Amino acid sequence: MAFPFLQQPLFLKSCELKNRLVLPPMATEKASQGIVSQELCHYYESMSHGGYLGLIFIEHSYVSPEGQASPHQLSIADDTTISGLSRLVEVIHANGVKVIAQINHAGSAASPNVTGLDVFGPSAVLNPAPAAKRHGGPVLPKTLSLEAIDQLVQNFADAAVRAQKAGFDGVEIHSAHGYLLNQFYSPLTNQRTDTYTGSNLEGRTRLQTTICREVRKRVGHNFLLSLRWGACDYLEAGASIEEIPKAAQIFADAGIDLLSISGGMCAYNRPDHTEQGWFAELALAARKAVSIPILLTGGIKDGQTADRFLAEGKADLIGIGRAILHDPTLPKKLLADA
Ligand SMILES: Cc1cc2nc3c(=O)[nH]c(=O)nc-3n(C[C@H](O)[C@H](O)[C@H](O)COP(=O)(O)O)c2cc1C
Q1: Total-model pTM
Q2: Is 25 in the pocket of ligand 1 (CB under 6 A)?
Q3: Contact call for residues 279 and 270 (beta carbons, < 8 A)
Q4: Does residue 4 form part of some domain?
């Protein structure tokens, strides 16, 4: 076998992934007022064509209007989105690939230029992430009240139920790349002193774990639940690699089935690093701490490297984003005749 580790199936509960190659979520800006467009269906048909990938994550969808990140982003904020999303699922399932919806709230990375609404975050602090600089930002956010946070938990849970109704195999909570849940995790943007305090890991992870538990309650045991985690900011006084073992355990205890490792306030690139798998040290730290599967993404371009990370035990699944975007036949090249 060309890539014996990449070609191995993986069971996530009762869901069998035929191999370890994953298309990570990538925003396409192809939705039409939040609704799935024909263009978007064509895009995911070409990405899943031939059924070579083990798993596809759909690009981030906003859970409520003030959490929209960009003008043509997908929405999962109300029930009118469900029928379009189920068309997407049908296209991908027809090609024999499992599919997970990613749900998100932009928090202080949102912009009134896009939403026409006020911008909120954990604390009134400017967001240092690249996502906050788009659309005229960063904007100084208003601090979320405890009541508003309770509402957000329900918004995420409602969105997860919509994903289930649309036929997805699971849902991923987005807590990376400087968006709202990542703003709670990063001490750079969380200066709260209440139960969501930025001064310890329990406080910084409380919103994610509350959402995960509420989602689990609403979707049941068999629907996959993944967390995309901005596990390190690579910025002074930001979230650090040393915190990973404890935080990973806290997330695993909240009942997730998969932990997808990426960057925090540095987004999906790592400052001054261009080697393939630039977040491998983060994935390894998480993998040593918990027994749930770990997905590593970031800069990986070829089958040899992907296979090596799996062989070395740095991750259980490998995400390849931009290299597949540039060449949608790459999964076939790597995995045909496996
Ligand atoms: C155009 C583009 C859009 C992206 N959109 C999302 C997204 O919606 N959600 C997310 O978690 N990550 C998103 N990402 C990050 C990717 O999932 C991935 O982590 C990143 O591209 C690094 O992997 P790569 O080097 O293999 O491309 C996006 C990346 C790109 C390039």
Answers
A1: 0.98
A2: yes
A3: yes
A4: no
